[in-house]
């Protein structure tokens, strides 16, 4: 019973002491408690030193791709048709991935052979899908149409990466070559 009374007294004293409002006398590493905000891009920069963190004009961020600046106009289409060239090397791997992307995004309208007889055309959902054989197309014009779309075809630039677009271009060129034989 004596120990029980001692425990009750100790709990009461500990509760009283812990509830007492105290101010912290010493702070270990005060910058951990009170951070100083810095804006490195501000006019004065970090610690008063001017900083220019804006990218240099014309640069491409790591992992980025060149901007596509050719406008969605008839003149832009003609410019892309004559000036734009595929930067990817023609390899079996690029052609296979181009075929895989074509199968996902293009085959339903353009067909397996690129003859314009895809599933949606056969089901009378769309009419007038062009046959690659009948068109005067180049790698630049194909890329431009993937980027901006043409007529009923919408842009596919958000569905395909930069590299995948050019791989699809390679595959479409291969389909066209087969149709011209």
From TrEMBL:
The keyword Transit peptide does not apply. The keyword Metal-binding applies. It comes from the Bacteria. Residues 93-176 form the Cytochrome c domain. GO terms for molecular function: electron transfer activity; heme binding; metal ion binding. Keywords: Heme, Iron, Metal-binding. SUPFAM superfamilies: Cytochrome c. PROSITE patterns: CYTC, PROKAR_LIPOPROTEIN. This is Cytochrome c. It comes from Polaribacter cellanae.
């Amino acid at each position: 019973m004596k120990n029980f009374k001692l425990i009750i007294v100790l709990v009461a004293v500990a509760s009283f002491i812990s509830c007492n409002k105290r101010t912290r006398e010493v702070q270990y590493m005060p910058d951990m408690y009170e951070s100083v905000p810095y804006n490195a891009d501000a006019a004065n920069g970090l610690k008063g030193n001017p900083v220019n963190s804006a990218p240099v004009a014309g640069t491409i961020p790591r992992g980025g791709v060149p901007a596509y600046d050719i406008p969605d106009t008839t003149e832009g289409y003609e410019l892309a048709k004559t000036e734009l060239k595929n930067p990817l090397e023609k390899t079996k791997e690029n052609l296979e991935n181009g075929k895989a992307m074509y199968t996902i995004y293009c085959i339903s309208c353009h067909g397996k052979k690129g003859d314009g007889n895809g599933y949606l055309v056969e089901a009378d959902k769309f009419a007038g899908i062009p046959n690659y054989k009948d068109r005067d197309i180049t790698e630049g014009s194909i890329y431009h149409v993937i980027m901006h779309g043409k007529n009923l075809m919408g842009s596919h630039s958000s569905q395909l990466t930069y590299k995948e677009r050019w791989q699809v271009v390679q595959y479409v060129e291969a389909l066209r070559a087969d149709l011209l034989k």
